[in-house]
Amino acid sequence: MQAHTQSQLDALHAAVTACEHCATACLQEADVRTLTRCIALTRDCADVCALALRLVARDSAHAAPLLAAGAAICAACADACSQHAHLHCQQCAEACRRCA
Fold first, then answer.
1. What is d(CA 60, CA 69) in angstroms, rounded to the nearest whole number?
2. For the chain, what is the domain count?
3. Is 76 in contact with 44 (CB distance < 8 Å)?
4. CA dist., res. 74 & res. 93, Å (int)
5. pLDDT for 52-98, tens place per residue?
6. Per residue in 53-70, is it b (16+ CB within 10 Å) or e — as a string?
7. Residue 10: which CATH number?
8. For the chain, how long is the longest CA-to-CA vector?
9. Which candidate, 90, 88, 87, 79, places its Cα nearest to that of 100?
10. How many CB atoms lie within 10 A of CB 91?
11. What angle do CA 57, 63, 69 make, to 5 degrees?
12. Residue 35: pLDDT above 80?
């Protein structure tokens, strides 16, 4: 596998993992009502990145448009998560920025 493809796979996997963890951890926070946008974006981001990961892994001709959409949602997710002081939000923002 090409190094560029492997780096994409690594970034996508890290974003999926961080987003899933963040959404779950946000639901356990005392101030969960202030985290609704963060939760929604992390769930959407995890889903888009997971599909993109599979398409890149199989060298699909449809990977490129999904990667573009994934970059946009990763940027939005990073922006939303970075607004919160929770460690899981900050880690998610970092993973999403790298993926975008």
1. 15
2. 1
3. no
4. 8
5. 999 999 999 999 999 999 999 999 999 999 999 999 999 999 999 99
6. bebbbeeeeebeebbeeb
7. 1.20.1270.360
8. 44
9. 79
10. 17
11. 125
12. yes
**Residue 75 is encoded by which pair of tokens?**
């940027």
The torsion of the CA quartet 69, 71, 76, 81, rounded to 10 degrees, works out to 130
Alpha helices (H) along the chain: 3-27, 36-57, 63-81, 87-99
From residue 5, give the alpha-carbon distance in Å to each of 12, 54, 59, 63. 11, 12, 9, 11
Structural domain harbouring 17: 3-99
Residues 1 and 35: their CA atoms lie apart, in Å, by 38
Q: How many CB atoms lie within 10 A of CB 2?
A: 8
Residues in the chain: 100
In terms of Cβ atoms closer than 10 Å to its own Cβ (0-12, 13-18, 19+), residue 13 is middle
Give CA torsion, residues 74, 77, 82, 85, to 10 deg: -130
